[in-house]
Design a protein that fits this description.
Radius of gyration: 23 Å
Number of strands: 19
Strand content: 5-15%
CATH topology of the domain at 2-15 and 88-256 and 282-392: TIM Barrel
CATH superfamily of the domain at 2-15 and 88-256 and 282-392: Trimethylamine methyltransferase-like
Shape: globular
Oligomer: single chain
């Protein structure tokens, strides 16, 4: 156990894939999806609700505005996005060693997002608290296999809705020095995030760099609402990144088919990204795709099924043609506990994530119950798999050492390689070493308590939190932040909206 934990303390950079992404559609097929998305934008249109300035911007750019319905001339959104949206960008962390590049051949992994419940082996399922939130920020900080602190890693429901974002953003800034995501539940909360980042990073740093990436979800089908538009506008005005993601349960929020869901996803994302570019040309955007299937018998979301995997592959192709970073994937499952169902469904979602060339992976660790629950043990099990995928995307080593030709020639027929010079030189790094899996003999496993993977994960996260030490943080900035937060909290009464 001690050796596993020591190995987990290693620091690793974000991933750079060496393999060409898998593409499931021909050129003609992709062009058909693009054509159909433009038809949706032109003939049906998208509702932009509750933000008149958005309608004004879009109308001035050439869109037809009828009330809150916006119809776009064919190709308009694509032209706006390709004219100014960067193909990749650096999100700067408080510790520059943790900066990440989002786009191109790179993959950045972040924990799960948005769960109101948490689960652990000891206490079962319960509402999340700010202590749980801080715990997951600390665990994410400590693992080398997650490169980004994420955003709402769980909802701290013990805090007022209108103030909890202050504690969440502070936790990311104080208990980690990895990149983080900002609040999007109200435009004013997005502005609070920006203001807090100005204190932590300095106004000049924020003015010249992207230090926040935030999740902006469409209200599918074909609606952008004022909350999301307002938050996106705040971040874009400050040159911070927006992750524009249609959140779709196919069959309920889009057609049941792969092509239909991809068409609608592209139309919604194009409209959202075009809006961001009109607010501030050059502001970073990520094309996001979150599509799940559903049980046609019960209406419940399902995960790990083939159809969402195909949507992911298609959307990856579309994002690369558009020339913007792509977000999708994660260790998604519908299981309520970290069991075999959770493992199989998570693996079935993560494989297309990496093979499809996803740049930003939200929900890489901790997801249970269709996103309703953040699991402590599931987090550890998922992180271990993230490490394995990190080793996989390095590809095949064709250096002299990787070819090992001299070792083969020197060893000869019928002789094992266990004691060869080449094996001894490579044995520490030859294969990925799981921090969770047990590969000992049955007798050793029995003598050590017959622990299953979930029980081992339970011991690991507890030890990690016991070993946690916060990253350095300038005392003057910390004091300024805490005083600023105290003033904001005292200025308005608590509210649950």
């Amino acid at each position: 156990m001690a050796a596993r934990l020591h190995a987990a303390a290693e620091k690793l950079p974000f991933l750079t894939r060496t393999m060409t992404p898998v593409e499931v559609l021909s050129e003609e097929g992709i062009e058909l999806i693009e054509h159909n998305a433009d038809t949706v934008l032109e003939e049906c249109g998208i509702d932009f609700r509750g933000l008149p300035e958005a309608l004004d911007l879009l109308k001035a750019a050439g869109a037809a505005v009828d009330g809150e319905r916006v119809r776009f001339p064919r190709g308009m959104c694509r032209e706006i996005v390709t004219a100014s949206a960067p193909p990749q960008y650096v999100q700067h962390a408080r510790n520059s060693a943790n900066n990440v590049t989002i786009g191109g051949p790179h993959t950045v992994l972040a924990p799960a997002y948005g769960s109101p419940f948490v689960r652990d082996l000891d206490g079962g399922r319960r509402y999340g608290t700010i202590e749980d939130f801080r715990n997951f920020v600390k665990l994410t900080y400590m693992t080398p296999h997650l490169h980004h602190s994420g955003g709402t890693v769980c909802e701290p429901v013990d805090l007022p809705v209108n103030k909890r974002h202050l504690d969440m953003v502070y936790a990311h800034l104080r208990y980690s020095d990895k990149p983080f995501m900002g609040s999007v539940t109200h435009p004013s909360r997005a502005q609070d995030t920006v203001d807090m980042a100005k204190i932590a990073f300095g106004e000049k740093v924020l003015a010249e760099n992207t230090v926040i990436t935030s999740l902006i979800n469409a209200n599918s089908p074909l609606v952008w609402d004022s909350t999301m538009l307002g938050a996106a506008k705040v971040y874009a005005e400050n040159n911070q990144a927006n992750l524009i993601t249609p959140f779709i349960i196919a069959g309920a929020m889009s057609p049941v088919t792969v092509a239909g869901t991809a068409t609608q996803t592209l139309a919604e994302a194009l409209a959202g990204m075009a809006f961001v570019q009109l607010v501030r040309p050059g502001a970073p955007v990520i094309l996001g795709s979150f599509a799940s299937s559903m049980s046609m018998q019960t209406g419940a979301p399902t995960f790990g099924t083939p159809e969402p995997a195909l949507v992911l592959y298609v959307m990856g192709q579309l994002a690369r043609r558009l020339g913007v970073p792509f977000r999708s994937g994660g260790h998604l499952c519908a299981s309520k506990v970290p069991d075999a169902q959770a493992a199989f469904e998570s693996a079935a979602t993560m494989q297309p994530t990496f093979l499809g060339g996803v740049n930003f992976v939200l929900h890489a660790a901790g997801w249970l119950e269709g996103g309703l629950c953040m699991g402590y043990e599931k987090f550890i099990l998922d992180v271990d798999q993230c490490g394995m995928w990190g080793a996989f995307v390095k590809g095949v080593d064709l250096s002299d050492n990787g070819q090992a030709l001299d070792a083969i020639l020197a060893n000869g027929p019928g002789q094992h390689f266990l004691g060869t010079e080449h094996t001894l030189a490579n044995f520490e790094s030859a294969f990925y070493r799981s921090s969770v899996a047990d590969n000992s003999s049955f007798e050793q496993w029995r003598d050590e308590g017959e622990l299953d993977a979930v029980q081992r994960a339970n011991k690991i996260w507890k030890q990690m939190l016991a070993d946690y030490e916060p990253p350095p943080f300038d005392e003057a900035k910390d004091e300024e932040l805490t005083e600023w937060i105290a003033r904001k909290k005292s200025a308005v009464p608590d509210s649950n909206i």
